[in-house]
Give the backbone structure.
Amino acid sequence: MRDRDVPQDRARSLGGQRKRLYARDESGRYTTVLSSGWEAEEVVLGQAVDEFRRQAAEARQRVKQGLSSPLEYHMYARRMDLTVLAQASGLFRWQVRRHLKPSVFRRLPTTKLTRYQQALQLGHDELTCLPPDHEPSHD
Amino acid sequence: MTDFRHQQTAHCESGAVASLLRHSGLDLSEPMVFGLSSALTFAYIPLIRVGGMPMLAYRMPPGRIIRGLSRRIGASFDFQRFRTPEAGLAALDGHLADDRPVGLQASVYWLPYFPENMRFHFNAHNLVAYGREQDDYLISDPTFEEPVRADAEGLQRARFVKGMLAPKGLLYYPTRLPDSVDYDCAIPAAIRSTVNMMLRTPLPIIGVKGIRHVARRIGRFSPANEHFNRLFIGHMVRMQEEIGTGGAGFRFLFASFLQESATLIDKPRLARCADQVTDAGDEWRRFALYCAKMLKGRMTLDYQKLADQLMKVAAMEEAAYRQLMTGLPE
């Protein structure tokens, strides 16, 4: 890649930051160039973020219909999945999966709730209900 | 307060190591650190899932750069991990009170200064802490343009997150440095190790064979699983471009190392190999561009086209590594 071809697409996700890329100058020597982002990168990053948003939105619906516990919503809102949440809370995947059931979640002992509170960085009341609708996510 | 010179690099681990070494008086460029530690690779590991996607890596696992480089140039690092966050905090404060900047491993998601869209649960980010002002730690994060700050609570959370590659508060700093680096010996050894990895690993999912394996996998994608397929190619491009690779999944970084080496040990053939690796890198970028266009619907979703592009990359990389092997004296 030539230094003048380094994309400067002003990616929103970089939050004004620029990143360093390696490219060659006129004489073919390597140098570093600051890039304000690349559209191709922005596309795949947006795809990953949107996937979590979609999962959180679907989870929210399920929680409202009483099919799932608020834990599922919070998990996706924190960009986690079953594996990541299980590891972060020190529980088994099957336990977390079980806690996604509203009836089980409602009766969880404080010790388990505390684990989720720490892993998700939420207070007790935040964890046990959904945030208001106008907030797409709390992170 | 320590006088620490922040330098932005492409990749976090090679950047953190390079800046710690420079602070201690050994000036190595980021590509030199990356190349000498033989960190370049390609690995497709379907057994390990990252966010529901098979693991794809363009460089060796976290930690390899520090250890690989230390072994190659005869340096030593002290590594400390902690059982409790309190112990980790006390140790960090102790080092900073002694004016000793230290490298830290932390989770990207919980670091307070990361832009919202960049926050994912990746626990092996590297940064350098060089001072503390009241409740704020002064951080030289190699992937940022300027030094940043992190409040004690946020930094603690990021250092003691649990899960895959859990940092357990890891901190590290150089304890012994060589007086000089024997490049004539270190560079060929490092290159040989990378070439062996890329060409001779007896597994179909590592190195050039790994690239071909993924190409075949993408070529066989069924249109029925479009949602997964789209996530897969998006995931691949993210690993290649977004995660501080310096462009083209570390290929440009490696090419820069070869070019620097050509002058350093007077082997002009290495410079020609650098050109080959650069060309392969350009094709990786083209692959990323195709993927993005297809995801956006600006190009028809054509798995075979992506597979062919990857096969092309594999052929170019293979030629470059073969050239490297013959370009080195035994």
User: Anything to note?
Assistant: Residues 3-37 of chain A form one domain. Strands of chain A lie at 19-24, 30-35. The interface with chain B takes residues 1, 6, 12-15, 17-24, 28-30, 32, 34, 38-41, 43-49, 51, 78-81, 83-84, 87-90, 119, 121, 139 of chain A (CB under 8 Å).
